[in-house]
Amino acid sequence: MPQDKKLYIKTYGCQMNVYDSERMAEAMGGQGYVTTDSPDDADMILLNTCHIREKAAEKVYSELGRYKHLKAEKPDLKIGVAGCVAQAEGQEIMRRQPMVDLVVGPQSYHRLPQLEARARAGEKALDTDFPEDDKFETLKTRPKAKRGPTAFLTVQEGCDKFCAFCVVPYTRGAEVSRPADRIMTEARDLVERGVRELTLLGQNVNAYHGHEGGLAGLIRELATIEDLKRIRFTTSHPNDMDDDLIAAHGDCDKLMPYLHLPVQAGSDRILKRMNRQHTAEQYIRLIERLRAARPDLHLSGDFIVGFPEETEEDFQATLDLIEEVRYGSAFSFKYSTRPGTPAAERDQLPEDVKDDRLKRLQALLTRQQRALQDEMVGRTVKVLFEKAGRFAGQMVGKSEYLHAVHVESDTIVPGSLHSVSIEHSGANSLSGRLVA
Ligand code: 5AD
Ligand code: SF4
């Protein structure tokens, strides 16, 4: 087998793509590839793309344009497009950009080595199937290399919710859960290699049903792995938050008090048009139950402004909901039309209205986020340290609530947990000193 060919992967979009890129790199490791940080010395370039918002495909084409000279200098260079743009526009990419040698959709990554071999043989290779076989099982031999203290682990993929704005049900397919025993095996392996915190990933992670106890059951079983210290999960839909998962926030010490629970909008009229299948009131009641289980829970959300037919009054309802919930962090977007989704057919709001609402929404969220972060000053948090900071003698890690925390220390090692007394709240992080 040829050795030490170089693979450059550029990853766009969500954490699941980060996880998928790792797994693809591992799969290609079996073909003699090692990863490189630069496209210039690569034998294969793979773009792991995202289709969630506008201009995603355009970004891919412009990135591909930047590799044209590399392909001219190095005819053996193979270029591949993976991820959700590949799934949505595979044929079109091949047609529009002849320098692309292979296209692989998110459910076919285990076939990447074969696709690469076909590309090497001079074929154009495309695979955007939704095969029955378990891609993670086929990809299972993760090399035993040492890992950093935190890792992602995909437990669920796909979405059956069909929110009117979203391409995910089309690009990632129907909801599928990985069997719990395979997840446990992968988790134990990661922990043996140094991982102390796992973030369980799924487009609809709390709809996970690969364990008889659902996601809460899986979390409780993962919590029995002694050297695994922290568990997180993302992203959840409010309607799949069952009683046991709510309870786990109160009684499972390893489950961190931070929850990403997108609501998208605060107006019932818009929530209905978005096909979210819940009201603002139901969401608020759910947050109350979660906070009853875990009073210090930090919440994070996603918001869309400028959805078709959103009035100023509807928008105000979103601001009111945000005021009521108090988010520790949030992501907000202008609505963008996605081909093939129901909302793309509706009358669109003017761009300047969307811009204005996004600005006002982000101002509120930033203020709120900052206030909650400032409230940490004077408190003691547990920090899982991950790496050296930017300055000599500094270490950086994450609090339970996912704040970045800096501490001056020569003794802390990555992967260790320490209590830190918070002394200062900066623009995007906290700092403090170790509690003896
Ligand atoms: N326009 C704007 N934002 C979107 N999102 C998903 N689809 C769209 C769209 N068409 C946002 C949602 C989702 C997050 C991942 O991306 O807020 O929760
Ligand atoms: Fe998209 Fe999330 Fe709605 Fe599924 S639940 S359609 S992934 S926004």
Explain this structure to me?
The chain has 436 residues and is an alpha/beta fold. The chain folds into three domains: 123 residues, Rossmann fold, CATH 3.40.50.12160; 240 residues, Alpha-Beta Horseshoe (pyruvate-formate lyase- activating enzyme); 55 residues, OB fold (Dihydrolipoamide Acetyltransferase, E2P) (Beta Barrel), CATH 2.40.50. Helices cover 35% and strands 22% of the residues. It is built from 14 helices and 19 strands. The strands form five sheets. The protein has a six-stranded parallel sheet, sandwiched between helices. Strand 1, helix 1 and strand 2 form a beta-alpha-beta unit. The protein is globular, with a radius of gyration of 22 Å. The protein starts with a strand and ends with a strand. The mean pLDDT is 93. Its cofactor is [4Fe-4S] cluster. Monomer. Catalyzes the methylthiolation of N6-(dimethylallyl)adenosine (i(6)A), leading to the formation of 2-methylthio-N6-(dimethylallyl)adenosine (ms(2)i(6)A) at position 37 in tRNAs that read codons beginning with uridine. Its EC number is 2.8.4.3.
